[in-house]
Each structure stands twice: as C-alpha cells, then as structure tokens.
Amino acid sequence: RLLGTAWAAGAGGLVVCAAGGAGAYAATRPAAPTPLTRLGAEAVPFHGTHQAGIATPLQAAGHLAAFDLAPGAGRAQAVALLRRWTACAAALTEGRPAPDHDTGVALDAGPCSLTVTFGFGHSFFDRTGLVKQRPVQLDPLPAFSSDHLDPARSNGDLWIQVGADDALVAFHALRALQKAAGATARVRWQMSGFNRSPGATAHPMTMRNLMGQIDGTGNPQQSAPRFDEQVFVPAKPASDGTTPAGPAWMANGSYAVVRRIRMLLDDWEKLSVDAQEKVIGRRKSDGAPLTGGTERTAMNLTKTGPDGKLVIPADAHARIAQPSANGGAAMLRRAFSYQDGIGADGTPDAGLLFVAWQADPLTGFVPVQRKLDRGDALSAFIRHEASGLFAVPGGAAEGEYVGQRLLE
Ligand code: HEM
C-alpha cells in the first residue's frame, strides 16, 4: 500500500500537545503536506492472517527488544499492554502518530515499510498463569558446544521485532513501544541492526552480511508450495485440539529463534577469498555454488575437482545446513547485521542478529544447529553470544489485539 504524504501533513499538521507531555505532538493544525517518495510511502498492512515482519522483505533498519513483565504484573496487565502495543503498532505502520505520546521523531517520513512483530517467551506463561497454554516448542533450546550465551541478553517474557526502511522510522516505533509499555514491562535487552537500503541496487538482491557473503539464497521462497507449512503453524487444529506445532491459539503463528552471532572478523578477513568460499561452499561475488551456475543453481554435492576432492567441501556451511542433510529441516532466515563498536577484547563487536522463522523449531533450527555445532567450517569464525526463542501468534484481525486468542 502506498500513502501520498507523511502523517504530519496528511492528518493536518502539528502543535505541541500539553496532554501528551513535554515534547509530545498531536495532529491539530494544518501544514503543508510532506511529499513522499515511493520508499517513504510504502505501508505494510499490520492486520492480517500472519503478523507482518516475517514474510515481509527485509528492511534496512531493525530493532529487536525483549521485555520482562514488572513485578506484580500478570495476565490482566499483559492484556492491557498488548492492547496498547497493538494500537500503537497499527497506527505507526499506517504512518499515523503513536496514540498519546508521539515524539515527532518520524514526522516527515511515511511508514517506510514499518513492521512490528510481537512474540511470547517461555517465562511469559509462568508470569500470567497460562502454563497450560505454553507450547512445548518453547521449551529451552538445547545447549550447544559453541554457545557463549549471555543470559542478560537472552530470552525474556515478551519480544518485539521492529523493521523499517528508514532508521528514524524504526527508532520512532521502538521508542513509542517502549513508552507504551509504561510500568507494565521493562526492557530486558535490545539490539539494533541494519541491512542494505532498498534502491541501492538497480534490482532487489539477496542481502550481503558483514563477512561479505550473499546470505539468504537457500531460504524457502514465498512462491514455493511448502512455504506456508514450513514457516507458519497450520491453522487447522488436530482432533485433540492441538496443531502439530502447539496449541490452537498459535494457528497461523510462527516460532522465532533469535541468536546474536558475533563474527570473528579479524580472523575471517585474514582468509583468501578462495578459502572463504570453501567455508560456505558458494562464491562470494554472486552466491553461486562452487560447482558453477548462478545464485539459484542447485549445489552439486557429489562433484569432485581434478584433485579428486569434493568441490563443495564436506564441512562447507551450506552443505551441512541444507534441508536434505537435515531431514528436510527448513527455516526462513531473516537476519539483520549489527555492529556495536569494538568489544573489550579489541575486536569488532559485529555480526548477525540471526532471526529464523519456522512452524516448529524442533524440526527447523534445532536439528540444523546440532549439525553445525559438530563443527562446520564456519564455526571457527563465529560465536553465538545471546539466544531467544519466542512464540509469535498469528496476525490480529481488525478490532483484535495481538495475542488475543491466547489471553482472552
Ligand atoms: C546458508 C551464512 C548461521 C542455517 C548460508 C549461506 C551463508 C550463510 C553465506 C549460503 C547462502 C544462503 O543459502 O543463504 C551464515 C552466517 C552465519 C550463519 C554468516 C552466522 C553468523 C547459521 C545458523 C543456521 C544457519 C545459526 C541455523 C542453525 C543456514 C541454512 C542455509 C544457510 C539452513 C541454507 C542451506 C541451503 O539450503 O543451501 N548461511 N550462516 N546459518 N545457513 Fe547460514
């Protein structure tokens, strides 16, 4: 959906609003419209069968944030919070101001493909007395030998993913949601990431990560017949009231596995391009398999070179991670790159905010990570530093709030 002008102008302009607190704005006075480009005007519908921000094309800026319910806050407070968050996200994604306390940060921008996606962590169900409704899919992920996880930056009662094609629009949404949390929930951790800006290349291209690789080629494609069943929990409950991937309230939802994966860039950048390509099994320039063709050509996993060795090495990341090596395990990897300066060890604190979406993490992320953890060639150059697992319910219909089918 395309909107013509930024909300500030379209809705009639701005004055400082006393009721909204110092620095808050309300649309009350006419002003000249702010013309928008196609990029600024692009709006991703908030309401729908699935939450936005899963099958939506990757945006240029993203924030991940986890919240814990405040002491004393339970189910009733969680319902009120999800109502506030839903109203806030619905407004912002349409390019309207946040209810009550808009900060004006995104005044002259349109929605810029803003999406806000909400999820529930394992501990949410204890806090709200809903343990019986907790999907087994939220059981803690197994420990992996390569984990260096920081509990303070892992998991959480509630999770939000914000994405937009403009950094101010993304921050504006994050801030509005933090404020809407009020005294009900406190930020446990938050992380910010980025991707290439849309329009930087003449045609849309698969993203490149901070190791320089084309990243996302092997993802399930939306046009593929199995995309929905791989990414989303089926809507039709089984006869016992459960769906294969959890309770009925999760119908049309998805499970997000979040991993903050540091890239050991100083080590990686010492490798020749040839060595880097063998680590993945694909060409750095265009993402094509080392066995030839273009990015979308299938890998030839049996082809050997003149030296008799496999062209795509036995420990190449793409070989080990591919569905046919893992009982069909598939996930939609929708990651943001991050960089937070130089770490205490003097190396870049940079890498991937890895977000994998699947209908069931037990048949998606877990078997693949188990296999990779036994030592794919990439393992020596990355470190998993934080982890989260969240149940992301289906999308809210107009008039509904996100998570209503769980909380009502
Ligand atoms: C493929 C990079 C972590 C699962 C790839 C590819 C690259 C890559 C460059 C080949 C292109 C593509 O198909 O996207 C990375 C980097 C990682 C990382 C830099 C960490 C910083 C992970 C993790 C998992 C994973 C933790 C899951 C547990 C996959 C899968 C494929 C893939 C399923 C597609 C394989 C195929 O079907 O061909 N990755 N990856 N990756 N990766 Fe990773």
UniProtKB/TrEMBL annotation:
The lineage of its organism: Bacteria, Bacillati, Actinomycetota, Actinomycetes, Kitasatosporales. Residues 207-396 form the Dyp-type peroxidase C-terminal domain. The gene is efeB_1. NCBIfam families: Dyp_perox_fam (TIGR01413), tat_substr_1 (TIGR01412). It is an enzyme of class 1 (oxidoreductase). This is Deferrochelatase. It is found in: Cell envelope. Keywords: Heme, Iron, Lyase, Metal-binding, Oxidoreductase, Peroxidase, Signal. Its EC number is 1.11.1.-. It catalyses: heme b + 2 H(+) = protoporphyrin IX + Fe(2+). Involved in the recovery of exogenous heme iron. Extracts iron from heme while preserving the protoporphyrin ring intact. Belongs to the DyP-type peroxidase family. Its cofactor is heme b. It holds the Pfam family Dyp_perox_N. PANTHER family: DEFERROCHELATASE (PTHR30521:SF4), DEFERROCHELATASE/PEROXIDASE (PTHR30521). Binds 1 heme b (iron(II)-protoporphyrin IX) group non-covalently per subunit. InterPro entries: Dimeric_a/b-barrel, Dyp_perox_C, Dyp_perox_N, Dyp_peroxidase, EfeB/EfeN, TAT_signal. Residues 51-195 form the Dyp-type peroxidase N-terminal domain. The keyword Isomerase does not apply. It comes from Streptomyces tremellae. The keyword Signal applies.
